[in-house]
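Work Package 4 report. The design task specified in the project plan requires that, given a folded chain encoded as structure tokens, an amino acid be chosen for each position. We show below one input record used in the internal validation round.
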């Protein structure tokens, strides 16, 4: 029995298995970095691929869907922290509005809070629009797929 036959009979990974594993590993790094907002150039450098590879991967529907889901998770994590931070910011703003001698400090604090409130409202409206669009599609007989990060778990690949 040859060495290659020994490798096959004992289930050793083939070169193609290792190539797939390497690609999956690099894709995981790319997904994480891109979802965090890193540039294509930086993500490519860290993952050990070219910028062209990053652009090519972004045209792959599965990869793009996984990236979208990863970005949504990141955004949800940030949004989950916002209410507590807004509460603290309101307290700080209230204090600044009452005690700051500088009007521009008071105005700046008020602007930040108003902008954050508008963003929260926009996110809520976007969620409501998504739910309405899904309901319309379902009424028209379409099947709506609701994918979350668990649908793209790398361990299932």
């Amino acid at each position: 029995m040859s060495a290659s036959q020994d490798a096959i009979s004992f289930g050793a990974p083939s070169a193609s298995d290792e190539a797939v594993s390497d690609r999956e590993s690099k894709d995981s790094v790319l997904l994480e970095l891109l979802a965090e907002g890193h540039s294509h150039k930086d993500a490519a450098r860290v993952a050990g691929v070219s910028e062209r590879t990053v652009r090519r991967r972004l045209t792959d529907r599965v990869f793009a869907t996984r990236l979208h889901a990863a970005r949504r998770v990141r955004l949800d994590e940030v949004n989950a922290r916002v209410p507590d931070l807004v509460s603290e910011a309101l307290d700080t703003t209230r204090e600044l509005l009452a005690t700051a001698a500088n009007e521009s400090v008071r105005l700046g604090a008020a602007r930040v809070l108003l902008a954050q409130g508008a963003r929260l409202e926009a996110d809520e409206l976007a969620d409501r629009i998504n739910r309405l669009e899904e309901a319309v599609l379902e009424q028209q007989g379409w099947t709506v797929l609701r994918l979350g990060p668990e649908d793209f778990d790398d361990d299932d690949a």
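The chain has a mean pLDDT of 82. Validation will be extended to a larger panel in the next phase.
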